[in-house]
Inverse folding.
């Protein structure tokens, strides 16, 4: 046997075996074979950050297979992925084999390739290298940092903030972005403003224009603040005669986009395909490792974890040849397009993500790939081809219109695509310039016929909530985390229930908001965007051999450990007082300034923390057990520390039985507690549908509504038919006559009234 080859996954092993043949034994490690022992003390900062490693069950099995295979060969080829994690996996395998004294007289070779093709694999095996210790050190530093933060900071959260799950070096900073955006949106106060528009008739078509100047003064966005002001201007402007003053025409060149990096692929797949980052990476991994084509495993794209926008000379020439053979000559630039990568880590600046063969078109793979695989492959293929195509050229036209007395100036703008260039293959749906808006072909000094003058009301808009694409883009802009880790970061935030995705937008949960406030007050340095980005840069410097990994860790740990120690003196009362002060407007936003307990009328409502989450409770507890959720609903409880059992209230239709919300092995359910005389009878129970996620906010009213569905809401004011709320197998829906209307996930159907139902029915267009 010529050698033993180690890769990460069985799929990659299968593809590689087809190239190497029977003389090589290709073994999958199934990812990392070992990790830090999952307990406190696995990293010793006082002993040069010595680490305690533990080989996982799968790792032990794979190490044994490697060891057994090495008895038949003296050559070990480590062919794990070409990044820090891949380098670390190879290093771990060598460390374990060395500890077992299994490498005597063995030749160790590290082979690296960025695409799984016959030529790339052959070249890698012809040019092996040694383990890159700088990359390994950067991995070790990152792993130690994440461990020290997680195992030092998370216990502080558990003790000082009941209900909190964990904190992470990058995870918490990403959560801060989501939370601060949400608080910014909540604090936003919209401002009213108005715009004026003239519609002109010409014999060559209509022109819609917008008022830009009054008496030669340029109008700013908020200059016209009220309807009265707008109406005064409208009435006057409608009496004027107008003429075209000038027409500005120019050509605008649009450059194609660079080939995909990990980050831009995740962003585009989110925007255009609706793929979560995790799904994008899973599909890309499969396309990279290989798909069976005519019985042969074939890698379809290059390595999908990269910060680089570079294409190899071979890829450039192949792309240009495809364009030359399949498009008119004017679609191919004179020279290849070279894109500069922004990454600061040269070790990881590999090729961009591209097809391994641009002649393998998406249409050829329709019957081979799944729908989702084909969608992602097509996105990558189109972006790569388009990156080497000619610019698009847009013809932009601006018509400047003036009243005869020169008091009012209006402007009309339009653009047309003169030459589509790269847009023939790939367009960005977010770019409005790709949508043609034609204006009639008129000349300067043309008199215009005014058809109407209208006013339009507007309100300033808050910033948009983060979605996966915009969050990834922001993290990359700030230099926080690595593109290869974004999918994991986003997944952890959701798993911890710190934020949820609703209509593809991140909504922070109350506990997520409180965790960020806690960290900003007591660990502010470690959730600062600049500090986290600087630390990421230091990890890159370790990769490049510019910094010692132990120096970076020492600098971090000295200050961080002091902050952890200082936090031991905090009490839960201290924390609650701090959170109330820093988040006052958020926590009490639904009380309208009235903090008196609505039950006992003597106590005050204050923030309370429990394992079930945050809520408002009476200061007279335990004498008064009244509570409200932070969202404002009444939530009576018996024992806030009892996680799996919460009383909602009494059911007047069932002998005033106590109605409990319980959490069992199969999820949440409602249970009616029988009286003493009926304890032997089986209690009434009702499982909560899985799509009800706001468990902490469920009230007695919600529970009774749920138990009494279907519920008649009343008659539609226009159609005079009964509207009924149903709960079906696939979620809640409305029924009116013979028509049904599905409700969106974000609609609070348990608290829906007839007026809200009417709006949904009217907006559906089915009636």
């Amino acid at each position: 046997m010529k050698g033993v080859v180690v890769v990460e996954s069985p799929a990659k092993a299968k593809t590689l075996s087809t190239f190497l043949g029977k003389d090589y034994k290709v073994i999958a490690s199934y990812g990392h074979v070992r990790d830090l022992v999952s307990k406190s003390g696995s990293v010793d900062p006082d002993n040069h950050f010595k680490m305690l490693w533990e080989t996982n069950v799968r790792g032990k099995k794979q190490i044994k297979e490697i060891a057994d295979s090495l008895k038949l060969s003296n050559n070990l080829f480590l062919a794990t992925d070409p990044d820090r994690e891949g380098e670390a996996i190879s290093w771990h395998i060598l460390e374990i084999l060395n500890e077992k004294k299994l490498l005597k007289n063995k030749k160790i070779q590290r082979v690296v390739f960025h695409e799984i093709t016959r030529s790339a694999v052959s070249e890698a095996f012809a040019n092996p290298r040694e383990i890159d210790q700088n990359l390994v050190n950067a991995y070790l530093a990152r792993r130690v940092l994440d461990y020290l933060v997680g195992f030092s900071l998370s216990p502080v959260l558990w003790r000082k903030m009941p209900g909190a799950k964990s904190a992470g070096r990058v995870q918490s900073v990403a959560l801060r972005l989501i939370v601060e955006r949400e608080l910014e949106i909540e604090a936003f106060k919209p401002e009213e403003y108005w715009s004026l528009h003239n519609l002109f008739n010409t014999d060559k078509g209509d022109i819609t224009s917008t008022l830009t100047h009054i008496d030669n003064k340029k109008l700013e966005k908020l200059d016209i603040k009220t309807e009265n002001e707008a109406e005064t201007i409208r009435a006057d402007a409608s009496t004027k005669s107008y003429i075209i003053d000038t027409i500005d025409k120019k050509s605008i060149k649009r450059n194609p986009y660079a080939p995909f990096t990990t980050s831009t692929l995740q962003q585009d797949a989110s925007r255009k395909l609706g793929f979560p980052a995790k799904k994008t990476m899973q599909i890309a991994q499969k396309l990279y490792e290989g798909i069976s084509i005519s019985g042969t495993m074939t890698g379809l794209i290059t390595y999908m974890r990269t910060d680089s926008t570079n294409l190899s000379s071979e890829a450039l020439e192949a792309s240009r040849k495809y364009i030359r053979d399949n498009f008119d000559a004017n679609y191919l630039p004179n020279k290849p397009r070279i894109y500069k990568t922004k990454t600061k880590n040269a070790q990881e600046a590999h090729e961009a993500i591209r097809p391994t063969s641009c002649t393998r078109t998406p249409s050829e793979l329709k019957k081979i790939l799944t729908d989702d695989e084909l969608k992602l492959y097509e996105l990558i293929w189109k972006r790569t081809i388009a990156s080497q195509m000619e610019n698009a050229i847009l013809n932009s036209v601006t018509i400047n219109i003036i009243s005869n007395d020169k008091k009012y100036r209006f402007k009309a703008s339009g653009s047309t695509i003169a030459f589509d260039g790269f847009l023939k293959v790939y367009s960005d749906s977010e770019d409005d310039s790709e949508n043609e808006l034609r204006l009639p072909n008129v000349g300067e000094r043309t008199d215009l016929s005014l058809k109407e003058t209208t006013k339009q009301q507007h309100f300033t808009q808050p910033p948009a909530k983060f979605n996966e694409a915009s969050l990834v883009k922001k993290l990359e802009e700030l230099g926080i985390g690595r593109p290869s880790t974004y999918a994991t970061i986003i997944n952890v935030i959701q798993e911890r229930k710190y934020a949820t995705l609703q209509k593809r937008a991140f909504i922070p949960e109350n506990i997520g908001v409180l965790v960020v406030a806690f960290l900003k007050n007591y660990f502010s340095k470690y959730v600062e965007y600049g500090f986290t980005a600087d630390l990421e840069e230091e990890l890159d410097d370790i990769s490049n051999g510019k910094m010692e990994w132990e120096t970076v860790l020492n600098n971090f740990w000295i200050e961080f450990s002091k902050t952890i120690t200082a936090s031991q003196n905090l009490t839960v009362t201290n924390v609650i007082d701090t959170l109330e002060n820093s988040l006052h407007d958020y926590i009490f936003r639904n009380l309208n300034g009235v903090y008196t307990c609505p039950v006992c009328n003597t106590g005050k409502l204050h923030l309370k923390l429990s394992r079930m989450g945050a809520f408002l409770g009476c200061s007279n507890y335990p004498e008064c057990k009244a509570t409200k959720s932070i969202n404002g609903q009444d939530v009576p409880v018996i024992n806030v520390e009892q996680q799996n059992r919460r009383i909602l209230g009494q059911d007047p239709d069932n002998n005033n039985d106590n109605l409990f919300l319980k959490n069992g092995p199969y999820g949440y359910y409602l249970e009616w507690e029988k009286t003493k005389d009926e304890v032997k009878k089986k209690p009434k129970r009702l499982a909560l549908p899985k799509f009800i996620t706001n468990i902490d906010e469920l009230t007695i009213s919600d529970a009774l509504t749920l138990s009494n569905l279907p519920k008649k809401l009343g008659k539609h004011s226009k159609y005079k038919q009964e509207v009924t709320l149903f709960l079906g197998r696939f979620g809640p829906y409305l029924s009116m006559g013979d028509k049904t209307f599905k409700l969106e996930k974000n609609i609070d159907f348990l608290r829906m009234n007839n007026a809200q139902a009417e709006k949904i029915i009217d907006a559906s267009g089915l009636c």
In short: The mean pLDDT is 89. The two ends are 74 Å apart (CA to CA).
